[in-house]
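hey so u asked for the seq, here:
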Amino acid sequence: MGRGDDIKKILNLAMNMRTSVQGYSIQDIKDECNVSLRTANRIKNIIDDVFEVEEVPNYTTKVKKWRLKRGTLDRIVAFTADEIATLEDCQTYMKSQNFTNRCDLLPEIIKKMKFTTLSNSVEKDAEALLEYHGFAVHQAPKIKLDTEVIEKISYAMLAEKYITFRYKNKKGEEKLRKVAPYAIIYSEYTYLVAKGDEDTFCKHFLLYKMQNVRVTDEYYEKDENFDLQEHLSKAFGAFQDLEPMKIKLLFSANVREAIENYNIHPNQKLELNPDGTTTVTFEAGGAYEICWFLFRWGKDVQILEPQELKDTYKKLLNEVIEKY
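ran it, C-alpha cells below
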C-alpha cells in the first residue's frame, strides 16, 4: 500500500472522528484502518498534532475514546463570513427570480457551512454583512412553478430518459410530445430545452403549459456537442429561432450612459457615435421577446435592421393602439 493510501486513510478517519458522537478508541482506529495497535497509536498522534482532539466522557467503561473538536477541519476547508453572506444573498435572489427548486437546497448548504466554521464570530459577521450589503428584490410578475414537474425533469436529465407531456402550441392545438430533456431556463417564464426525435434542433417549452409530465423507461443519447451557453447565445431571452437575425439598433443620446452599462445580449457590439447616439448590433432569434424588450425604451430606440423585426414591432404597436 502506497503512502497516498495511508494519507487517504488518515483524512477519512479524521472526518469520521469529526462527526462521531461516541468517539474513537485505539481499537476502533485499528479496526477502521486495518493496522496494528502500534500503528493505530501513531495515527491517533498524527491526527492530534495536525488537528485537535478531545476525549469523550465515558462512564460505562474505562476505554478512552476521542473525537475532533468542532472547527478543527477548518484548517483544511474554511468559509469566511463574506462567502457565507454571499451565498445567503444568492438564496434571496434565486427565490425572487423563481428558482424555487434550486434555492430550496441552499438553507441546508448554508447551515453546513456555518456548522463547520471555527468560531461563532464568523456567523455573526455574515449576518452583519447581509445587513450592509442588502439589495432590492425586483418584484416582477412571475409564473408559479410546479415543483413536482421540475423534479421529474431533473431526474430525467440525470438519468438521460425521455419524458412525455401534453402541450398546446400558439394556435391552441394540443399534442402529445416525447422529448429528450437537455436543460431548464429560468427567467420571467421558465422553459424546458428539449429535443424530439423529429426535431432538427432543440426547442423551448413553457413549463406551466406542460401537462401530465411523465418520465419514460426509454433512454436517449444526448448530443455531446450540445452546449447550453452556445445555444442561448443564439437566442434573445428564452426565445430561440432556427436562424438568428442580424440586429442593429440605434439608441438616442438621452440613454447613452444607460446603454453603455447595459448588457443587452452576450454577443453585442457597441458603437458610440459622435452625435451622442449608440449603435448596438448582435445576432439573436426571438422577434417577439426582442420587441417586448425594446418597448421599455420607448422613443429612445430605433430598429435599423432587419426589416422582419421592424414589421413585427409595428404589428405589435398597432395591435395595442387599436385597443385605445
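Residues 147-226 form a domain with the SH3 type barrels. fold (CATH 2.30.30). The chain has a mean pLDDT of 77.
lmk if thats what u needed
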